[in-house]
Write a structure and sequence with these properties.
The complex is a heterodimer of chains A (about 140) and B (about 625). With about 140 residues, chain A is an all-alpha fold. Chain A is built from five helices and no strands. With about 625 residues, chain B is of the alpha+beta class. Classes of the chains: A mainly alpha (about 140), B alpha+beta (about 625).
Chain lengths: ~140, ~625
Amino acid sequence: MVTLPCIGSAIALSQVGRSASGLISEEPEKFGKALLLQVLPGTQGIYGFLAAVLVLQQIGFFGEEALTITSQTGWQILMACIPITFAGIISAIMQGKVSVAGISTLAKKPEEAGKAIILSAMVETYAVIALLLTILILNGISV
Amino acid sequence: MNFPAQKLEIIAPKEKSEEILEKLQLQEIIQIISLEEEKKESELKEKLDLLLAEMKFVRSFLFNFKEKEGFLKSLIDSFAPEKKKYKLEELINLSNSPTIKEFVEECQKIETELNRISSRRESLKREIKELSKFSGISLINLEELDNFNIFIGSIKSDRKEELLNNLKEESIFFYIEWGGEEEMKEKGFYVIYPKEEDKFPEIMESTGAKREELFWNRSPKDLLEEKREELKELTKKEEKAKEKAKELAKELYKFEALSDFYTWEMEKIEALEKGIETRNYFCLRVWLKGGEGEKLNNILKEITPYFLIEEVEIEEGESPPVFIENQGLMQSFEVVTGVYGAPKSDEPDPTPFLAPFFAVAFGLALSDAGYGLLLLIFSFLMKRKLEGAKNFFNLFIISGAFTIIAGILTGTVFGTEVFQGLRIVDPMDDPIEVLLLVSVLGIIQIFVGILIGFFWNLKEGEKEIALGDKGGALAFFLGLGLFFLTGEMAVLIASIILMMGLNIIFSKNKGLISRLSGGFGSLYNLIGYFSDVLSYSRLLALGLATGIIAMTINMIAEISMEMIPVAGLNFALAGIILVFGHSANLGINALSSFIHSARLQFVEFFSKFMEGGGEKIKPLSKQGRFVEIIK
């Protein structure tokens, strides 16, 4: 389930990537900034991965032996993953759209690229909050 | 500090205009305001236009032949392009050098040559494609015979059999020779048939074969070879021309420099055009960079005694452009303000206020002593290499230092817990404690923001906003602070009532009801403050993200070391995983930390005392795209 944000990030990155290559074919010197705009929606994928690692740690995957968990805790852990799962995938795709718009800002007014980056990062706020929620809930589940 | 510009008119003798503008351009203190819309034509301008076009041509032509830069170099260049340093005299000498003209002509010659080669090659390729359909035909004699028709034709390969069968069915007498290779979709042929076979054209048509209007005096095979040879020759010629262009591209920097130089010359002419002139004098309307009055006076005095500087009243609704300047380390935080944009002329410069909060927020968001140290060292090295981006890297040196502190306090170094000596909180075990900590940071910053707004409104004479709106909010935050310290609910309630009271008393509205509704409306602000404070929780999430991913990288390295039994190889693999993993994690999280810390300033902090949207002054200057003038 926590791979959904990764899928979202991948979709968003490909969208931004496509419009960025359009720009780069005309002005290759803008590569650095375009790359920055492209990687922005990638964070959600990392957040998903992060949540996965936390869950694995919680169930003792990395320990000497895996803990046996009851189905009740299993459900709890599943529920704990819901915030980052859905906020992750949707915010990644939406952030990708803002980044695509940012690429056109970069094309027309390269000196304002910083603002485009901030605008795109605004969307990420909700993925961050969702991640925080997931972490807090996971922390509260005793295995 | 925020220095709003002054609106002035400068009047001076026309014969000194070039000298005056040159000095002003070097000093970068005025921005020209247009008095005259109409553009004038002049010989000098035409000459410059031509030169600029030539430089542009050379730049774009030679750009493709420039030595390729490394990935890292081009990445850095796109953020902070490296500028070559020149003395002004050097540029003037360069522009007068006779070799420049020759060089441009040489470039034009090569370009024409390359264009010719590429168009000839295209037509050759077409011809070769056409000819290869007939490549097998040995004999070409198209002279008409009395009793026979002879011609060349072509047909789709899959209908070849059909044609032959049809001809056979009608028992027509003919001789045909086929060309082209087995896999070709179309085949050429050479056919001879008696003139009385009048059904022949009909059958040909029915199978889609067509007669080609081609005439050769030699066999297609020879012709093909000839064309292929020519193609080879062309490629050789092209290589040679490209080699030459590559050689020329080594001098590209000269043309970049001249591009800048001619652009400055053009700007001076255009500056004069924007003003008005009499027979002997010229008048320019300008924005003078804040606080540079004396400098302007001195520049003019040095050149001529006959000048006049007059202040012009600022029109209603017109906002003077601003100039932001800070001293010392504060200067590097202008990078953060710069992303948001300049404050208005009547707003404070937020840079010194945001500096401590930004650094602390960045430190908390990255919160790993090892990463902080790496960031610091990296920025330090980069700063020495790229002087143009000094402020940018200084910002990261400071932020790196704060990251080290945050990392020590949370006890994380490269995702490990090797150093615990000064740990005060473990974010993994006590996230709630860290959440409280970042919320307190948020409350303090928002309080400071309102405080700045309070004093600024007072200074600008907006007493009602200062005492009512800002004063009320301050009362609430003081009450909140006392509530945290004493735990007395009554203090908090009293402060909220005080806030509403201040809003009612100091209101711009006259009527009682609108005053009252304003007072109760201030309660709504509390929700805003609450969500502002919650927004700081991102720092916890970002800090955890860095830490956990760093931990995971260590874990993967450890596992891979255990999995490979070969000593040496396992160390190498673990080393690669550690180096790449941690650099990628640092890169991504440093970016996130920067963006999110900046956002906290822009959205949560700035909104308390400024709107922004001011215009930064763009002085007439000798700031080049490619070169930097050493003064």
